[in-house]
Amino acid sequence: MHVTTIVPHGDIPDRRGFAPAIVAQELAIRYRVMTPSFIALQEWKEPAMEWWHGIPVLRYRQSRLYRRLFTKMSRLDPWPLERRLVPMVRQLDPQVLHIHQLEFPILRFQKLLGRRIPVVLHVHAMRTFDESRGVADRYIAVSEFTRREMVERRGFPEERVVVVHNGVDTDLFRPPGDEERGELRDLLGIRRDAVVLGYVGRRQAPKGYHRYLALLERLVEEREDLVGLVVGPEPQDAQREEGWAEARARHDRLVATGRLVSLPAVTHRHLSQIYRALDIVVSMTISD
Fold first, then answer.
1. pLDDT at 122 over 90
2. Is 8 in a helix, a strand, or coil?
């Protein structure tokens, strides 16, 4: 069975720590009885079509200006995702679509495609059920909590919601030996005997980033051996958040005094090395 996985807001392979893209690629390379292909967003200067791990990847282009004008400011998208996908889906000719976007307009897409194709929607962000978009053949919830929320509070059809937990590659993500941890800290410029308090995620208030910085600034005053490490992107709209300027000033102070190591978004493989350098990971998310 040929399954095409669609990642509307991220690229394959993932290069920036985007969770839906990571889940999509890690699932696909582990299929045993299905043949995978991908459709993804062209985020970088890769070709519009290439092979990754022996899997074909087709990419569609959408400029930042286009997204700003037609998906954020006006919502009057003249060339919406479902229309862009039609020629790619026809080219790949899958038997099932696995789409990592809960609000995908199934009915509009199938009308444009000219045929019905089974659709599985993967749930990464919660929405209320809207039958006018079309009903998926299956909805994949990442936890029992998410499944209950979808069925009991959001109105999704219970018989169509299944749970597939986000897995962990335990060869890649594993505890380090003492020497390995020390070497990783040497590369990061962190003393080997420090207590390292980490934050992993995008740098926005809903993810708890501002709270993490406030916590770290307070704790480093109490402990000389404490160092913070943050890894993740800062989206453009972060600067519009309340408290952004204060958080940026706090970040800069901590970096200047050597109490915080600040890294951009990294790949899944590199992230596993970051985790092995940490003692504690802090998750202070507000919205998840």
1. yes
2. coil
